[in-house]
């Protein structure tokens, strides 16, 4: 993928970098990784997983029947690993650039002169 990943996609790939997971496990992991900022609904997640499988970034790891329902586990593919690594590096460089600029700004910022009571001195 040449374009930056959307945050939910980045978080799904990040969750799968740890171990294969099923859909509802991914929903919880994405919520945890984002400190609750990103909360995926099942339809959104499964649509994203279908797109990621079609793009070759995620693979089906295995399927099992639990309580009469099919549970599908997904894993990061080698292409998904490479994409996540590249995106992580891109974000790291962006954070490094922003941090450097903010530090430089803080060094050159002048503190405000204290105000005196009664107007101009």
From TrEMBL:
Q: Where are the transmembrane segments?
A: none
Renumbered to this chain, the Low complexity biased-composition regions fall at: 109-121
In this chain the Transcription regulator PadR N-terminal domain maps to 12-85
Chain spans, region Disordered: 98-121
Which superkingdom is the protein from? Answer: Bacteria
List the protein's name: Transcriptional regulator PadR-like family protein
Give the source species. Answer: Micromonospora krabiensis
């Amino acid at each position: 993928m040449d374009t930056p990943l959307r945050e939910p996609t980045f978080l799904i790939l990040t969750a799968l970098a740890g171990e294969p997971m099923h859909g509802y496990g991914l929903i919880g992991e994405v919520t945890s990784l984002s400190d609750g900022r990103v909360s995926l609904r099942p339809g959104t997640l499964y649509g994203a997983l279908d797109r990621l499988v079609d793009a070759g970034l995620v693979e089906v790891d295995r399927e099992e029947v639990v309580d009469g329902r099919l549970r599908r586990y997904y894993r990061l593919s080698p292409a998904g690993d490479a994409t996540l690594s590249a995106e992580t590096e891109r974000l790291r460089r962006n954070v490094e650039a922003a941090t450097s600029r903010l530090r430089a700004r803080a060094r050159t910022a002048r503190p405000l002169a204290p105000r005196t009571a009664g107007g101009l001195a």
